[in-house]
């Protein structure tokens, strides 16, 4: 259950304060040139320390590739990338009672107190770093084969939808010792038609399954999403309100997905000490893109199954 | 990909105008008394023909059990239930060009014209009938083991949130030859804590994966969902805004999930003939409940894996 | 667990004395002409009643197709085929204590007495009939895409390897109220190279997994199999001792697999009444071929995943 | 496909001459004390350099645990263990043409020359080292919950079945520049009854699937295996000829499985230079045990699914 994918096979591991976190990606095609700078730039988008708004923690997030890539070219064998944990301040989290809005209690229910929950352990948002690495690989593969481009943007931070004011809102929350959530929209263009299945592995199902494993995601919608509930059929049938997916299968139009990110539960106001982002939405952006890329790549693998029979 | 579940194994089949539709449920526990009346009543909730607002089609939706249940008791072996298709008016759908908002085009892209798309074929909402059957079995098992209760309600039809006016809205849309969508909320109480995994098989992931295979679902949210994006952390941490799931794992509080159902794309206004519901939200209600029940049952199976080691 | 396959998805169901047995095949390509006569002839190879050596039971084994095939052409949607059970003599099996060599006891351990074990229930060799149906579909698809041919033969019945004497051996055992086992060899030619994975889904793993679900199979070997244990490397490296698979991946040479079939445990000598085959090896032949065909078809689907990247 | 398991989730990675090899084990129960000395002793059983008969290569095979275990106790989160590759002599394998009996050609067919095949790369027997690590964890868990013990022995080296003469046979083959295969038998006692499913995930299927992913395994048999083909039913029904599995489900008797290991294909006689074992059977012993342990642990997880319903 720490694995995901039907043909592409992800396997994730690691705790925030353990020796390392990482991911293994099975099924990745051979012969793909892996641009190390692109990987690094994607990792940097998720890394902390990029501005005054962001946590002061220092996470290098350098991915060390243990297998599957040689001389910057994929081999076809499983790719394992790890990120060594360094400079974690474990004492920050000692003897903390169950924090509201966190996984502390559910981890205790499930693992009976054996989980190392320092820094939220395996539940930490830090575990999304390996996902961004895997997502970067997926973007490269999709770009090469189909010229697919996947780009996200923040469309809302709390009540604010004006992009230029997002940072001010975050600053204000920080001063209050509080935190903010928001909404991210990802659009994928040049998505091949025919990805997804009518049932159980609909394109929406597969993308949403992955997105909902990202901590803090509490909602996922496609196309006009919940707004479609308020449209009449005559309106909903027009344009790309379905977000590039009909009957569970992509139609080649831009694939649009939106997720809501809840406000960081760790807040000074609740007496939680330590260095925490007042708003993780900016850092979540590459994670959400990564999920979309990985789901589309897996679906594109499955969609090839008919190729010897149907041209 | 027409299969779903990690330990519980669903496999669905059938076309709207083929001989029969059905589902096989593997992994269901033995020794459970299956109340045939309850099954029938759940099927009736999804069946058409219940009022003036609803399609005039006559679908018996009687489930014939081919295996796995003997003398109303589950055997432990796979349960296959089928529903024979009768009285379909195939001519209604002859030579229809790709209808907007439908799977007609994506089915063509994927299956190159070989899919029998009469009545939307394997993409028909009718294929959710077997899901309701499976969901009824899941409700019975969850009730017996954990006293879990799963109940849904319509919280919005188009712009209307007043329950007493839903039917008027639907009537008005019907007269216009148009259709309406809405929002369904399902609450599950007495859900055991500890269901779900931190990553990839979070409770949200698993439930959403199944919900998004239901035709017409375009959004899924848990707890306060997209509204959490507008809360501050200090507010979001309180109450049950997380909808009974934290860190991907259930915490024993009521599990709350909401889905949006898009308006039926088949509308007279667009020149589509045939008998179509102006609003499928009421009939979708038991389908959404069924998905929640099936996902929780599967997660409850997985959660047992530790039982020989941890009491 | 009643499902099998990574991209091709099999789901099997049914008890020997229930209403029907059947299988659903997901992922089968659209547009393939299904020769109903070929299906019937494959089913006939497994059916009883073909000679004096064989059980006198009358099983029609006519497959009724519920979905996924229209006008003898596959649609791309899941194919469900069922076989109605008729004329079962349930009384033959009433109140039988656990029979040696049967699943009676293990079924009781697992299902606590709730399994309908008349005619061995879901454990019956009869459940392999749907596999033969699915295997026939797989043979058709493999033949069309790759010209693959899959043929089996009996290479041993008990101590006898002379084909012309097999029936005499069986007759002799029948007279003694005893039963015989044997060895079946299946060869597949024109198998595409590159099927299978280095680990966990090696071609051997995938084929063997399916073969070992056939009741009565107690051993599986590839190429020269157990005989390779006695060869020196200098000999083993020559010819096709590896049976067309190296490093878990097919090399295009004939794929050779052998299985041992244990003697039928139901014997008059042990006081078991009813009509039983003194030797099921002849009827198992098409079942073993079916497994090989299904495993190769699934592997061929997976092997297509690289096609957008590598020509 | 580099992943295995239904509830227990293995994911393997690494090339013989890459930075590291490793495995991630998901689903392992929390709270289990992991005896580091036992892990080391199991790794040592597979490591080379134990005698004159064995390869002179120096492989430390120290497992570095990156996650999931803290202070020698399992946490419940995925366990990743890696083994750093050091001191590989890459030049030994430069420009080698396809070697007979190796994966060289099939790797080329599948990965189009992009796989790093130095030391056989991801196809190397070295990749079984992480399996031994995972198997040691499985043995510990099975021992704790069920007191299960899993032990293997060599029953044949080439034509020799006298244990005291195995090393002489290997020495003789080494002098000839040739290699030998053999047969390993593993017995598991105190296996809980009720593990496995009637179809597709029979205990035999699940164990064999894993065993056949071990390079060099070309045959798998249970109980009396291929010898059962030569017995009459009256004999086969007695004793434990079925090797503790009936109808695909364990019956609590000792589970017996045998595998054949083909002779090492790398032989001086064929002009292959480098340091190669003349017989890998002794080192394969802990690998085969590991597979049995892992398959039984996964099956034991699945078997718990009924526990809330059936006591």
Q: Indicate the low-confidence ranges of chain A by residue numbers.
A: none
Radius of gyration of chain A, Cα only, in angstroms? 20 Å
Shape of chain A: globular
Q: Cα distance, first to last residue of chain A?
A: 35 Å
Describe the protein in words:
The structure is a homotetramer of 311-residue chains. Chain A has one domain (3-306): Chorismate synthase AroC (Chorismate synthase, AroC fold, 4-Layer Sandwich), CATH 3.60.150. Chain A is 27% helix and 20% strand. Chain A is built from seven helices and 13 strands. The first copy, chain A, has a five-stranded antiparallel beta sheet, covered by helices on one side. A four-stranded antiparallel beta sheet of chain A has the order 8-9-13-10. Chain A has a two-stranded antiparallel ribbon with strand order 5-6. The model of chain A has no long low-confidence stretch (mean pLDDT 93). At the C-D interface, strand 1, helix 2, helix 5, strand 10 and helix 6 of C face strand 1, helix 2, helix 5, strand 10 and helix 6 of D.
Helices and strands, with pairings:
4 copies of one chain form a homotetramer.
Chain A: E1 3-4, E2 9-14, E3 20-26, H1 36-46, E4 64-67, E5 69-70, E6 73-74, E7 79-84, H2 104-111, H3 128-146, E8 149-157, H4 166-175, E9 182-189, H5 203-211, E10 217-222, H6 233-236, E11 245-246, E12 249-250, E13 255-261, H7 281-303
Antiparallel strand pairs in A: 1-2, 2-3, 3-7, 4-7, 5-6, 8-9, 9-13, 10-13, 11-12
